[in-house]
Amino acid sequence: MIEEIRIRDLGVISEAVLPLGPGFTAITGETGAGKTMVVTALGLLRGERSDSSAVRNGSDTAWVEGRWILTNPEAITETVNDAGGLIEGDELLLGRSVSVEGRSRAVVGGRSTPVAVLGELGELLVAVHGQSDQVRLRSASAQREALDRFAGAQFAEVLGEYAHAFRRWKNNAAELAEITAQRDARTREAEELRLSISEIEAAAPQSGEDEQLTALAERLTHTEDLRVATALAREALSSEEGDGGDALARVDAAKRQLEKMADVDPVLSGIAETLTQLSFQLHDVTGQLSSHLANLEGEGERDLDVIQNRRAELNTLIRKYGPTLDDVISLLDSGSRRLLELDGDTDRITELAEEVAADHELVVRGADALHDLREAAAVRLSAAVTEELSALAMPDAQLFVKVTKNDELALHGCDTVELLLRPHPGSDPRPISKSASGGELSRIMLALEVVIAGQDSVPTYVFDEVDSGVGGASAIEIGRRLARLAEKSQVIVVTHLAQVAAFANNHLRVIKDTSGEVTESSVQTLRGADREAEMARLLSGLPDSENALAHARELIQLAAQR
Questions:
Q1: CA 304 → CA 225, 309, 313, 391, distances in Å?
Q2: Is the whole-model pTM more than 0.85?
Q3: What per-residue confidence (pLDDT) applies to 485?
Q4: Is 465 helix (H, G, I), strand (E, B) or coil?
């Protein structure tokens, strides 16, 4: 249940604290005092869409905070933990801010989270009913959802299994339709891939081969120049004519001259040693030049032709499947996988067709089971709501829940659910979407919630002027039924009727205070004489009227007897 709500700068409310607690809380106040801001605040905490116009004039940000006392924390622990929040003992804090720029921030258990998390928690913690929900009750989907909630745990389990099978059936059917429709295109793609892979495999390119061939071709193009340069260099270092003019002969001659005087002059000895090392290096370089020259002698135009042909072959592959040779090579791997997938179309089509047929049969059986369960629940719900309507000053009215089986399968099954109202004996039942007045819709919605609460209770119910369009004895019965609902769940009601507020065990009044051009509202807990005065105001508009006060006391005493 909601223990407390704090509101700051929301609508006309500057700052207010709403102590709620268990049971039935009635919220009253003059028109324009800001009663609906309480419902707006709860909507924000439930993750509903924010509106920057709700920020109080002159303020930058509106802030709402709710403190929940949880009787079953396990139901929401996973959601809170996933959001990074904490549940301290049995207490959970939820917060929401809205700026004048339209930005919104949500807080769950002390941690900032996406607003969607508030939506997930709100569905589990609070059910809000307002005049817009009366309009929604006219829709077929809302009427089906009401019956499904009443149908109980067994129905919910069957519906969950059915929905899982339905989604699988639809997904497989969509994949089957896509593969079948694109079979010709996929066949052409497979043939093109087969040719491409065959061409690449025949060429057997290697990574970096194109760069290596480019360098080799460049060298072969200048073979004669390389041969001449290499021969001249070797000749300069070591001449075959032996005339003593090459570098090796000159270094050896210099070394021999210095070695003659090495014993006399240590400096010359060191230089002679250096020349010895230089002689070794020159011999080594000469050998390398000779070897390279021999290789160059073996290369010719035929080798260059082979290389240029290979380069042309690789360039053709690159133009087709590039832009690089590595891309060509990678196509062998990715193309082979894709070809395996495409070649498996026939097997996949057969497999999918079998799965789709099996799932369709499963879905049909599931829809039939849902229909039978809905029909059985419809009989019980019709009787229970009719009994409640009798207690809500509609003694002659009967509600019928009509379940019609359709040919089209949907995520919820194959049923259309319609609520029909027969206002008095002898009249024909007519859809509430066409025949029920606003007051009748209010009572039907309340009767549904009271009945459904026995099967699918929500921790907190919020009703925003659910008593709109009713009064007198009907209003008293609405108050009595709200009190009955409050025995199982927390009930918060925004009302303008004393007959309803009388049944509350916690009465809050939103007070409007006009200061200059700014209207501010705060919240007061009413007890004793203050509550009687507010009840009198609701009854007559005169909080000091003795007659109204007497009537207020009478209502409070009546409500206490239940």
A1: 15, 9, 14, 105
A2: no
A3: 87
A4: coil
